[in-house]
Amino acid sequence: MIDAVGSDWFGCILDIGSLRTGDPYAEIEKLVPYAVSWQIKENVGRDGKEEPTDLAKIKAIMDRAGYRAMSRLRRWAGRCAREGGGLSGEIRKAFGL
After folding, report:
1. Helix, coil or strand: residue 22
2. Which residues pair with 79 in a beta bridge?
3. Which helix (H) or strand (E) holds 74?
């Protein structure tokens, strides 16, 4: 659909929580060229089951695609509460901050 519209002003908000079948990271790789923004969720779906989002994989996908724009983190309550840096520590490590 995005290709059919054919405008630089039309893209997708890549909500990784909406990808629920198959390999979510393979689906993300397919969609990232069209992404104008991301919603990075605490969990991704793989074959109908939830698993923690691998932030290092997300960062690697962004880097391979040359993505340099807005990204949002949503629904991270469980990982925010963890000891040892929690979510902020995970983000700093995965994104080299």
Report:
1. coil
2. none
3. strand 71-74
* Tens digit of each residue's pLDDT (9 = 90 or more) over 32-50: 988 888 888 888 899 889 8
What is the widest separation between alpha-carbon atoms in the chain?
Answer: 47
Identify the residue whose tokens are 């790789």: 29
CA 97 to chain centre: 17
In the predicted structure, residue 85 carries a pLDDT above the cut 60 = no
By CB atoms closer than 10 A (0-12, 13-18, 19+), residue 29 is: middle
| 67, 32 Cβ separation under 8 angstroms | yes
72 sits in the region (left: phi over 0; alpha: psi -120 to 50; else beta) called: beta
Percent of the chain exceeding pLDDT 90 equals 20
Question: Could you tell me the two tokens for 91?
Answer: 């983000």
